[in-house]
Specification:
By secondary structure, the protein is α/β, with parallel strands linked by helices. It has a single domain, classed as TIM Barrel (Alpha-Beta Barrel). 53% of the residues lie in helices and 13% in strands. The strands form 2 sheets. It has a 7-stranded parallel beta sheet. Strands 2-3 form a two-stranded antiparallel sheet. Helix 8 crosses helix 10, helix 10 packs parallel to helix 11 and helix 12 packs parallel to helix 13. The chain is globular. The two termini are 18 Å apart. Bound molecules: coproporphyrinogen III. Coproporphyrinogen III binds next to strand 3. Pfam families: URO-D. Homodimer. It is an enzyme of class 4 (lyase). Pathway: Porphyrin-containing compound metabolism; protoporphyrin-IX biosynthesis; coproporphyrinogen-III from 5-aminolevulinate: step 4/4. It comes from Ancylobacter tetraedralis.
Length: 337
């Protein structure tokens, strides 16, 4: 997969899935039960290493992704964080300068060092040919959770804060740019072969705000990371970005690859950006739940559309907990022929 990130077309398309370690796997649910809560799982290297490796053992994917969460960054800045069963994340809110100033300037080493220890151990235990991905959330997406304290349908609270108090919002984004860059550098130095920046809420921004709050912070992170790790391989996943937005992001940031969600028109995207970066994606996670001939047809269409491109197979977003394992096996068999 590293060669594809370097722009080469692979004879055998590398495969991995967003959220490949998760509740659709019984072995994940077993460790999750043992650990108690989700954050304990993230901060206990033994557990984090184990669940990262589970999908590699079971499916032989070409990449492993560190088991953690994008909200570990605000947590290590001092935000209170919990995950309620079936309800998603709950955070103490950061809505103004006073609340931002009460947070740390750097990431609490007592939290982050446990994650970096897991990265090193995963790299040691993985087969050499399996790529290890680190990650962080893009500043925009992380800020949406920090401002609202939770996920909302269109992350209106953060969009409103960026309009009513742009100076505060800029300071929040700046804090996240600096700390996220340091976090990614730490992961790369600990053994990650590449890193992915998840901008899961990029799609709720108008074009000008997308430039300011999504592209520009990602561009700064890429520059800060490459200043320390010049050959760092970086993937951006701006979920919901338009073709124009995706193209602008590729040109402005210099990432090695872009992740595509399932709504993206593949051939146009190839024409617009395919020569400059590798493309990663983009099977609809619901097609993987449906399975059967719908799955076969969708996989075939995707393979045809990306034929001859530097392409990494993935889903257009994370795999859902209700996905049957047999459908994942069927998808891999279809891809591998
Ligand atoms: C927005 C976002 C989050 N986290 C993440 C994103 C960006 C990608 C995306 O858009 O999905 C990223 C993430 N979260 C998780 C990973 C691990 C690596 C992987 O396998 O991809 C990664 C890369 C584990 C997780 N993160 C979470 C779980 C479920 C926790 C559990 O076991 O109960 C997992 C496996 C919890 C989480 N974490 C987050 C939410 C909204 C939730 C609740 C929703 C849900 O439960 O799926 C925030």
């Amino acid at each position: 997969m590293k060669r594809v990130l370097d722009g080469h077309v692979a004879a055998r398309t590398p495969i991995w899935m967003m959220r490949q370690a998760g509740r659709y796997l019984p072995e994940y649910r077993a460790v999750r039960e043992k650990a108690g809560d989700f954050l304990t799982l993230c901060y206990t290297p033994n557990h984090a290493v184990e669940v990262t490796l589970q999908p590699i053992r079971r499916f032989g994917f070409d990449a492993a992704i560190l088991f953690s969460d994008i909200l570990v960054v605000p947590h290590a800045l001092g935000v209170d964080l919990s995950f309620e069963a079936g309800e998603g994340p709950r955070l103490s809110r950061t809505t103004n300068h006073t609340e931002l100033n009460a947070l740390r300037d750097d990431l609490d080493p007592s939290r982050i060092e446990r994650v970096l220890e897991a990265v090193g151990r995963i790299r040691e235990e993985l087969p050499r040919e399996t790529t290890l991905l680190g990650f962080c959330g893009a500043p925009w997406t992380v800020a949406t959770y920090m401002v609202a304290g939770r996920g909302t349908p269109d992350q209106g609270p953060a969009r409103l804060a960026s309009l009513t108090d742009p100076a505060f919002f800029e300071a929040l984004i700046d804090r996240l740019v600096e700390t996220s860059a340091r976090y990614l550098i730490g992961q790369l130095k600990a053994g990650a072969d590449a890193v992915q920046i998840f901008d899961s809420w990029a799609g709720v921004l108008d074009p000008e705000s997308f430039r300011r709050w999504s592209i520009e912070p990602i561009r700064r992170i890429v520059a800060l990371v490459r200043a320390q790790v010049p050959d760092a391989r970086i993937i951006a996943f701006p979920k919901g970005a338009t073709l124009a937005g995706l193209t602008e992001l590729v040109l402005a940031t210099g990432v090695n690859a872009v992740g595509l969600d399932w709504t993206v028109e593949r051939r146009q995207t190839r024409l617009a950006v395919g020569g400059r970066v590798a493309l990663q994606g983009n099977l609809d996670p619901l097609v993987l739940i449906a399975g059967g001939t719908a799955l076969d047809a969708a996989v075939d269409a995707l393979v045809e559309d990306f034929h001859g491109a530097a392409h990494i197979f993935n889903l257009g977003h994370g795999i859902r907990p209700e996905t049957p394992i047999a459908h994942v096996e069927r998808m891999i068999a279809r891809l591998r022929g």
